[in-house]
Amino acid sequence: MIRNSYISGVLNYNQLLFMIMNHKLQTHNDDLGVATKAESKSNKNLDGKSKSVASDGFISQSLYDTFLIRYGYVRGDYHVSDGSPVKMYDNYLKMYVSNAYQQKSKSHEIYCRKQDNEINRLLKQNGIELGANEKLTFTVEMDYKVKVSGTVSDEECKRIEKILNGSNSLLANKSVGYQLFYRSCIMVDGFHGKMDNQRFIKWELSNYLQESADVSINDLKMVNGEIEGGNDKLNKMLHGDEEDMDEFTLHTYKGMMTKLKSLLTIGLHNIQNMQCSIDFQNGSLMDRNVKYGFGIDQIKTWLPDILEGKMPVDINI
After folding, report:
1. Is residue 51 domain-shared with residue 115, that is, in the same domain?
2. Range of 68's domain?
């Protein structure tokens, strides 16, 4: 039996998320005065015979990371029942890992190298060549529109902006702006434990409403305890038959609506939007103002120590 982890046998990406989402999750959103709970499903789902999140196939990296960041699962070293450390093979990383620090750091590195490749592909495809000394800064807000500044001309910055904002990333079919925003504001800030709870929930709700109902959170308001200002799709979600939802969708929906009502009661104007900036030079994105950056040169200063078993105390896993 494995302790300090919810995985036994071969560790893989879908199994990990499935175990997280089937375990009882309790998150206290103290800033909003909200407590939401997703009840655990029956263990019969673990054999794959019943419908489950994991058996449905594709699970986005952002959803996987969001659960690990928000709920803090899979901490510390992996042990067997007698307390002896054990290494576990991760199919996604294609390597053995002995703790969550190694697993998380290495999975982030893989994701960030894919981002580098994607930015380089888009620039090359559109005839943009940057010199070794040329440095760009990409700034992204919750609308996922990329603003470019740097050592190149204003005209060149505008041209690069047009390229990045007009292209879908090959990563999970999300926009380039979304990928940059997710990396900096969610992944890297979460890795450092820097995420502001209210601002994160505002982004989480904005993203959920846009993807599930194609509605902007800024169009909504609370009137006599009810949410108003949405479209037909949102109204159907608000007043539809919950029996039509599967268990996971229902738990997600209830939690999001509770958070949304609390956020609208506080007032969206009282909570700042999340915003991030990330640099790009010599073919690699570089995280700003952080101790553990995932740029090609940044990661060399700390990842080897983690892979050798030296555990930092200031990483949020």
Report:
1. no
2. 1-98
